[in-house]
C-alpha cells in the first residue's frame, strides 16, 4: 500500500518525530539526520510528516526495540493519544493487542519483506487490514485500515473467503482455548480446531524447562518418537532453538529441506511420520515459553494464508498454554499437599479394619478439603473421623491438615465425641468468620459393642448388618464447625458381632443429576446388594491375613464406580471410609470389684494370677502383678472408690484400674534418697503404653503389655500415632 511505501521512506531518511513535526533534532543533544546524505531526493521533513499525519489510514512507526516513534492523526483517533505516545511499547497498545500481532511483526522483520494480513480489533470486533513494511535501518512501518464492510483491494473485490475463514477459525479456537483448563486441554483444542483446516496430521506442543524441551502432549506421534525429543537440551534441537531465539515461525516444506537446514537432526526426520513442518514459537509477554510444531504427512508449500493463519494462532495457543501451565502447577501442588495430609495407610486393629477412597474433583480449578482418619484408642477402642472443609483451594487443604492434626491430638486425650467437636469448633472459629467445616467423629467400643458419635453438619454413618440390611440413623444434625454452639448431641449405635460402618462426604452422594437423598438411597442399595451377593462376612477361602482388607478395597471400588461412574465430570471432591468392626469375645475380658482398703492390692494380684493362668499367659504374671499393685496402691492412698480391675486379652494384655477420682496421675522427678514417688516410673518401664481416660464418674488408668510371641515372630509395633501419653 502507499502508506507502507511512505513508511519505508520516512523510516529510511528521517528521524522519528512527533505528529506535530517536532523531532530529535529539536531536543537537547538530539542529532540532525537531515545532514546525512540522502539515498534519493529528500522532501522537506515537515512536508513528509504532514503528509503522513493527514493520511486517511492509521499509520505507526516503531524502532528496533518495538517502541513507537511516530503516530499519525488517524492512529491517534483510533488508538488514543496516550497509548501511542512516542516511547511506548507497541505491545502495550491495548486497542490492537490482538493475538498474532507480535508474531507477524517479528516475522516481517525476520523475513525483511512487507506482509499484509487481517486482524480483528479486540475492542469492537471490527476487521482491519494491516500492512507491515520493514525499514532498512531497523524498525517497522505499520499501516492499518478498517475493512469490516468491504476490503479495499486493487481489483475492488469485496472481502475474500480466506479472510472470513481465518476469522472464523480464530473465533472457534479462541472459544475452545478459553474453556481449556489444563495443558492437555489446550493441546486437545489445538488438535480439534487447527489441524483439520490446514490438513495437518501431527501436533507436538513443547515447553522450555531448565534449558530442556519437555513434551506437554501430542497427536499423531508414537511414544518412541516422543522419547527421542522429550528432555533433550535446547541446544541439541537446533530447529526449536532457532525458532525460540529468533521468535519467528519456521516453515519447512519437505524432509529434504529440513535435512539441509539441520543435518544433525536427520535422525528425527527419518523416524518421524511427517514430511513437512511448521515450527511456531510460543511467546508470552515477550518471553519464549515453548514451541508448537504442526506437521504434515506429505511435502507441501505454505501459502501466505497458511503462514498468516498459523502465526496468528500460535499467539492464542501461547497465552492459553501459559495460563493452563500455571493452573497445572498450582493444582498439582494443592493435590500433593492434600494427599500428603491424608493418612498414607489405615491401621489394621483388633476391633476395626478399614479402607478408604479420596477422589479429587474431576472438573474445576482447585482442590477441596475432604479428609478422614482411623485412630487407635485405649482398650482396643477405635476413633473414626471424616470431614469436609467448606470451599476449595490450597487454603482449604491446609485447614483440613490442621483439623486432622487437632483431632489426633484431642483423640489421644480420650475425649468423648461431643467434647472433641466442641474443641474442634473453637479451633475453626479462631480461623475466621468465613471458615466452616463439617465433621463426624465416632468411637467404637468392642467390649460394650456401642458406637457413639457426634455430627457437625455431616451425614450420619450407615450400618450394614451381616444379612445385608442397611440401617440409616434418623438423627438431628448439629450445625457445622465454626457455626455451632455447644453442646453437640451424642448418638449411639449398638452393633452386632460383626458389621460395616460406612462414612462419606456429600461429594460422593450429590451430583448435578441427583440430590443427597437420592444418592444415599443408591449408596444403601449398593452396599446391601454387595454384602448379600458376595457373602461378605463369611466368604469361603478368604480367611488368610489381609483377606478382610482386600474385600474392603473391592467394596470401596464398587461403591465409587457405582455412585461416581463419570468421575471426570464431578465438581466436588469426595471421601469414602468403610470400617469392618469386630466385637471383643466375652472370654477375652475379665473384671472384678475390689475393696477400698489395703487388701485391694493383694486381691488384685490373686485375681491376675488366676486369670492369666486361664489365658495361658504365665510369662506376664510377675509384671502384671507389679503393675496392678502400684496402680491400686495409688488409688487407695491418693484417690477413692469404687475400685474395679479389668483385664483384656487382645494383641496385647490390657490392664485397667477404675476409681472414683478425677485427679490426674503424673510422673514426678524423684531424688536418690526419696522413699516414694517411683510407682509411675515402674509402670512406664513395665508397659508398652499407658495412660488415663476420664469417665463421667471417675477415671481409668490403663496399661498395655506385649504378649509373648513365638520364637522368630516379631513383636507387635505401636499403632500409628505413637504411644498415648499419661
TrEMBL record:
Functionally, this protein is described as follows:
Primarily acts as an independent SigF regulator that is sensitive to the osmosensory signal, mediating the cross talk of PknD with the SigF regulon. Possesses both phosphatase and kinase activities. The kinase domain functions as a classic anti-sigma factor-like kinase to phosphorylate the anti-anti-sigma factor domain at the canonical regulatory site, and the phosphatase domain antagonizes this activity.
Q: What is the official name of this protein in its record? A: protein-serine/threonine phosphatase
Basic and acidic residues bias: start-end ranges: 22-36
Reaction(s) catalysed by this chain's protein: O-phospho-L-seryl-[protein] + H2O = L-seryl-[protein] + phosphate
Q: Does the keyword Protein biosynthesis apply?
A: no
Under the heading InterPro entries, the entry gives: Bact_Sigma-Reg (IPR052016), GAF (IPR003018), GAF-like_dom_sf (IPR029016), HATPase_C_sf (IPR036890), HATPase_dom (IPR003594), PAS-like_dom_sf (IPR035965), PAS_4 (IPR013656), PPM-type-like_dom_sf (IPR036457)
Does the keyword section mention Membrane? no
Amino acid at each position: 500500500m502507499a502508506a507502507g511505501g511512505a513508511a519505508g521512506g520516512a523510516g529510511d531518511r528521517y528521524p522519528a518525530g512527533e505528529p506535530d513535526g517536532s523531532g530529535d533534532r529539536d531536543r537537547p543533544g538530539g542529532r540532525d539526520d537531515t545532514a546525512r546524505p540522502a539515498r534519493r531526493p529528500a522532501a522537506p521533513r515537515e512536508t513528509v510528516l504532514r503528509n503522513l499525519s493527514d493520511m486517511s489510514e492509521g499509520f505507526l512507526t516503531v524502532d528496533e526495540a518495538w517502541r513507537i516513534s511516530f503516530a499519525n492523526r488517524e492512529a491517534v483517533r483510533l488508538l488514543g493519544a496516550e497509548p501511542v505516545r512516542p516511547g511506548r511499547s507497541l505491545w502495550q497498545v491495548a486497542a490492537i493487542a490482538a493475538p498474532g500481532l507480535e508474531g507477524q511483526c517479528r516475522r516481517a522483520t525476520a523475513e525483511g519483506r512487507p506482509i499484509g494480513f487481517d486482524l480483528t480489533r479486540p475492542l469492537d470486533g471490527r476487521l482491519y487490514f494491516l500492512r507491515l513494511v520493514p525499514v532498512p535501518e531497523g524498525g517497522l512501518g505499520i499501516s492499518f485500515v478498517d475493512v469490516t464492510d468491504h476490503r479495499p483491494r486493487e481489483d475492488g473485490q469485496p472481502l475474500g473467503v480466506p479472510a472470513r475463514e481465518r476469522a472464523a477459525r480464530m473465533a472457534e479456537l479462541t472459544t475452545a482455548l478459553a474453556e481449556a483448563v489444563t495443558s492437555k486441554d489446550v493441546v486437545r483444542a489445538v488438535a480439534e480446531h487447527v489441524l483439520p483446516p490446514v490438513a495437518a496430521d501431527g501436533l507436538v506442543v513443547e515447553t522450555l524447562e531448565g534449558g530442556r524441551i519437555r513434551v506437554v502432549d501430542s497427536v499423531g506421534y508414537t511414544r518412541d518418537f516422543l522419547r527421542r525429543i522429550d528432555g533433550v537440551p535446547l541446544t541439541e534441537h537446533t530447529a526449536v532453538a532457532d525458532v525460540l531465539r529468533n521468535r519467528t515461525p519456521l516453515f519447512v516444506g519437505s524432509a529434504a529441506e529440513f535435512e539441509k537446514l539441520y543435518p544433525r537432526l536427520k535422525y528425527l526426520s527419518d523416524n518421524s511420520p511427517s514430511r513437512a513442518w511448521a515450527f511456531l514459537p510460543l511467546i508470552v509477554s515477550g518471553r519464549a515459553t515453548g514451541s508448537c510444531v504442526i506437521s504434515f504427512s506429505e511435502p507441501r508449500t505454505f501459502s501466505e494464508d497458511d503462514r498468516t493463519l498459523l502465526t496468528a494462532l500460535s499467539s492464542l495457543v501461547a497465552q492459553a498454554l501459559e495460563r493452563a501451565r500455571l493452573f497445572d502447577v498450582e493444582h498439582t501442588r494443592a493435590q500433593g499437599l492434600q494427599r500428603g495430609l491424608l493418612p498414607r495407610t489405615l491401621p489394621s486393629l483388633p476391633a476395626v479394619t478399614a479402607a478408604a477412597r479420596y477422589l479429587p474433583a474431576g472438573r474445576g480449578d482447585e482442590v477441596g478439603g475432604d479428609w478422614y482418619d482411623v485412630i487407635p484408642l485405649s482398650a482396643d477402642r477405635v476413633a473414626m473421623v471424616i470431614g469436609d472443609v467448606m470451599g476449595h483451594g490450597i487454603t482449604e487443604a491446609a485447614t483440613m491438615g490442621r483439623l486432622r492434626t487437632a483431632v489426633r491430638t484431642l483423640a489421644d486425650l480420650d475425649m468423648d465425641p461431643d467434647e472433641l467437636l466442641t474443641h474442634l469448633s473453637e479451633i475453626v472459629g479462631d480461623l475466621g468468620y468465613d471458615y466452616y467445616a463439617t465433621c463426624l467423629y465416632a468411637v467404637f467400643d468392642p467390649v460394650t459393642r456401642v458406637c457413639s458419635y457426634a455430627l457437625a453438619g455431616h451425614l450420619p454413618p450407615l450400618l450394614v448388618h451381616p444379612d445385608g440390611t442397611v440401617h440409616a440413623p434418623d438423627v438431628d444434625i448439629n450445625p457445622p464447625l465454626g457455626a455451632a454452639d455447644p453442646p453437640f448431641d451424642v448418638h449411639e449405635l449398638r452393633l452386632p458381632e460383626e458389621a460395616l460402618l460406612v462414612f462419606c462426604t456429600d461429594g460422593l452422594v450429590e451430583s448435578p443429576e441427583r440430590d443427597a437423598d437420592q444418592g444415599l438411597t443408591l449408596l444403601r442399595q449398593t452396599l446391601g446388594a454387595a454384602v448379600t451377593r458376595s457373602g461378605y462376612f463369611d466368604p469361603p477361602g478368604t480367611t488368610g491375613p489381609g483377606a478382610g482388607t482386600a474385600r474392603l478395597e473391592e467394596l470401596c471400588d464398587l461403591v465409587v464406580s457405582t455412585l461416581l461412574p463419570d468421575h471426570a465430570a464431578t465438581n466436588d471432591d469426595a471421601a469414602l471410609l468403610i470400617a469392618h468392626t469386630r466385637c471383643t469375645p466375652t472370654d477375652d475380658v475379665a473384671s472384678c470389684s475390689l475393696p477400698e482398703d489395703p487388701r485391694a492390692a493383694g486381691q488384685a494380684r490373686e485375681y491376675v494370677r488366676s486369670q492369666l493362668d486361664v489365658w495361658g499367659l504365665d510369662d506376664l504374671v510377675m509384671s502384671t502383678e507389679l503393675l496392678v499393685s502400684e496402680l491400686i496402691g495409688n488409688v487407695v492412698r491418693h484417690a477413692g472408690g469404687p475400685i474395679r480391675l479389668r483385664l483384656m486379652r487382645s494383641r496385647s494384655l490390657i490392664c485397667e484400674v477404675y476409681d472414683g477420682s478425677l485427679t490426674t496421675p503424673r510422673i514426678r522427678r524423684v531424688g536418690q534418697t526419696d522413699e516414694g514417688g517411683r510407682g509411675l516410673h515402674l509402670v512406664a518401664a513395665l508397659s508398652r503404653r499407658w495412660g488415663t481416660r476420664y469417665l463421667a464418674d471417675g477415671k481409668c488408668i490403663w496399661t498395655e503389655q506385649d504378649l509373648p510371641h513365638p520364637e522368630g515372630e516379631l513383636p507387635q509395633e505401636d499403632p500409628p500415632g505413637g504411644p498415648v501419653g499419661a
